[in-house]
């Protein structure tokens, strides 16, 4: 436990909650701190307006909210997190339990002291509000992919000012619609006035829907920094859903970029260069500050990796020399290596088990151009390809309906005497159903052509609704080159194209007509990097085992040489 102010200040300087505070401010904070040690299994029950403010310095705790004595939710707290003092932070007290999952050190500050600090140090108030906003966002969203031991350092979305820039297009369109309505009201001809008025109203309605869609699209992108990785979550409602990420140790460099409007409104881009490509944090506030945090976490991740490697080899050497006194080796939570038991199906086999989903979820999945489930990414061809494949059948279906309706009406009115009304209806229904079945065949043909990326291989599957199924696959290790192309004006505007995958043979794998081919290429690079990283880790562990065996053998030989020789017995 820290015994003096200098030790307290040294610890506070390492916590992001107190980033930017000068020595005098840290000295003021340290004067109000009371250290508290908790053993594993200890529980604190806290409630009321006098509940202190707790800062977790080390260890791991479970935070459990209570309402009338009933648990309503919980999550883990780790070093750098805080809780308590809800009457100051949120305006109303909260009842909760804190349970130590590991031995933990906490700093507590009484409520009245915390009020003095937030009033005297505006930067501390800003840091608390910012981190509290991150907590609210994290706990309100189902980020199920986060590791149990993973700590979120930053979570942000596009800057609110950028939303105003996005809404300029719908705003201009709505003004154009209003001008059309105003112009229509001045027309003397009734028919022109009605047509122009309805057209202007349609433009305004479309602009409103466009504005709503842009608002939701703006709020669906998240940029996350954890102590393990950087993540870009991108989602377009019911169409596109992706997660692009990279381990911190894979980041090569980073740069910030902002345009004139961005500098005026306070937002910009952060471009992270990694071994598998670029990961963009677009239109975020304070990009330079986020870059500094990424650089800090990357440095800490490299230090943890080096420390883990050293502890691992030390543990193996000790285990070889003195198995009974082998030290416990810390495991880096970055390394998600799964050990497969002899009679247990592998992760890859498990991923292809049928997924239990409802009919509507299965129907929606057929329209998703990119879908990720349990680490398996499925790509389908772009909607434009579907439109092109079903254009003629859809036209024939509509033409059959229109022709049947028109001929039936003419026959009933006596304008034609070609067939009886019943015959016209029967022929029309037959043609309409045939054309619709043609359209359905084309749709199923489109949805059955899928491309899959798994942690181990790529898969190209083509299946005709009433014909053969052809499935090709290749291990990720065989990929020697990747390229993508967006062909033509529509390919650039609608962002679809082909991904060419060279596997070292005369035949290439080509993902035809998929949405955002650059993103698909990045996905493949990322899976290749992760596959090679795991193989490198396995090779490193084997090498460590071999070297430790050599060192243990050397140690035994040295002991034998220095052991006094017993005189020969006569």
Can you walk through the features of this model?
The structure is a single chain. With 570 residues, the chain is α+β, with helices and mostly antiparallel strands. Among the domains are: 136 residues, Jelly Rolls; 58 residues; 156 residues, Pleckstrin-homology domain (PH domain)/Phosphotyrosine-binding domain (PTB) (PH-domain like), CATH 2.30.29. 47% of the residues lie in helices and 25% in strands. It contains 16 helices and 23 strands. The strands form six sheets. The chain has a five-stranded antiparallel β-sheet with strand order 16-17-18-19-20. A four-stranded antiparallel β-sheet has the order 1-8-3-6. It has a four-stranded antiparallel β-sheet with strand order 2-7-4-5, with no helix packed on it. A hairpin with a 2-residue loop joins β14 and β15. The chain starts with a helix and ends in an 8-residue tail after the last helix.
Mean pLDDT: 81
Beta content: 15-25%
Oligomer: single chain
Can you count the beta strands?
23
Q: What is the CATH domain class of the domain at 369-524? A: Mainly Beta
Strand order, largest beta sheet: 16-17-18-19-20
Shape: extended
Relative helix content: 40-55%
Number of helices: 16
Uncertain regions: pLDDT < 50 for 5+ in a row?
326-354
Outline the biggest β-sheet.
5 strands, antiparallel
Q: Gyration radius, to the nearest Å?
A: 32 Å
**What is the CATH topology assignment of the domain at 369-524?**
PH-domain like
Distance between the termini: 63 Å
Query: If classified by CATH, what would the architecture of the domain at 369-524 be?
Result: Roll
Structural class label: alpha+beta
Within CATH, the superfamily of the domain at 369-524 carries the name Pleckstrin-homology domain (PH domain)/Phosphotyrosine-binding domain (PTB)
């Amino acid at each position: 436990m820290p015994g003096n102010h200098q030790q307290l200040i040294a610890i506070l300087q390492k916590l992001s909650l107190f980033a930017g505070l000068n020595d005098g401010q840290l000295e003021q904070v340290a004067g109000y701190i009371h250290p508290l040690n908790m053993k594993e299994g200890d529980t604190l029950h806290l409630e009321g307006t006098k509940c202190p403010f707790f800062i977790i310095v080390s260890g791991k705790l479970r935070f459990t909210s209570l309402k009338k004595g009933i648990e309503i939710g919980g999550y883990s707290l780790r070093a750098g997190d805080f809780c308590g003092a809800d009457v100051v932070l949120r305006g109303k007290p909260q009842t909760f339990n804190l349970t130590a999952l590991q031995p933990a050190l906490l700093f507590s500050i009484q409520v009245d002291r915390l009020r003095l600090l937030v009033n005297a140090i505006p930067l501390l108030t800003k840091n608390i509000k910012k981190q509290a906003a991150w907590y609210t966002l994290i706990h309100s969203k189902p980020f199920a992919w986060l590791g149990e031991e993973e700590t979120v350092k930053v979570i942000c979305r596009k800057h609110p000012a950028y939303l105003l820039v996005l809404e300029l297009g719908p705003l201009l369109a709505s003004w154009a619609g209003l001008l059309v309505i105003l112009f229509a009201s001045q027309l003397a001809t009734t028919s022109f006035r009605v047509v122009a008025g309805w057209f202007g109203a349609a433009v305004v309605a479309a602009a409103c829907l466009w504005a709503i869609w842009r608002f939701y699209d703006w709020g669906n992108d998240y940029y996350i920094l954890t102590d393990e990785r950087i993540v870009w979550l991108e989602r377009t409602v019911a169409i596109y859903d992706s997660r692009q990420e990279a381990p911190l140790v894979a980041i090569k460099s980073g740069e910030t970029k902002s345009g004139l409007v961005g500098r005026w409104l306070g937002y910009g881009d952060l471009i992270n260069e990694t071994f598998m490509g670029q990961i963009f944090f677009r239109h975020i506030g304070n990009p330079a500050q986020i870059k500094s945090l990424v650089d800090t976490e990357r440095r800490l991740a490299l230090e943890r990796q080096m420390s883990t490697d050293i502890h691992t080899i030390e543990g193996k050497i000790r285990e070889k020399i003195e198995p009974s006194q082998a030290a416990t080796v810390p495991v880096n939570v970055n390394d998600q290596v799964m050990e497969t038991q002899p009679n247990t199906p592998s992760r890859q086999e498990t991923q292809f088990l049928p997924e239990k989903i409802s009919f509507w979820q299965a129907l929606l999945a057929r329209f998703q151009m990119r879908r990720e489930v349990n680490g398996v990414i499925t790509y389908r061809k772009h909607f434009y390809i579907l439109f092109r494949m079903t254009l003629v059948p859809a036209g024939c279906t509509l033409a059959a309906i229109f022709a049947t309706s028109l001929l039936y009406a003419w026959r009933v009115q006596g304008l034609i005497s070609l067939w009886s009304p019943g015959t016209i209806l029967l022929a029309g229904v037959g043609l309409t159903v045939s054309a619709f079945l043609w359209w359905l065949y084309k749709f199923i043909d489109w949805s059955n052509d899928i491309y899959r990326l798994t942690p181990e291989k790529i898969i190209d599957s083509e299946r005709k609704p009433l014909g053969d199924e052809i499935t090709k696959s290749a291990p990720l290790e065989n990929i020697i080159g990747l390229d993508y192309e967006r062909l033509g004006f529509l390919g650039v505007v609608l962002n679809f194209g082909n991904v060419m995958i060279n596997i070292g043979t005369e035949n290439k794998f080509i993902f035809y007509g998929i949405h955002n081919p650059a993103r698909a290429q990045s996905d493949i690079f990322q899976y290749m990097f992760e596959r090679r990283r795991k193989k490198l880790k396995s090779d490193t562990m084997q090498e460590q085992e071999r070297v430790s065996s050599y060192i243990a053998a050397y140690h035994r030989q040295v002991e034998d040489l220095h052991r006094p020789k017993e005189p020969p017995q006569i």
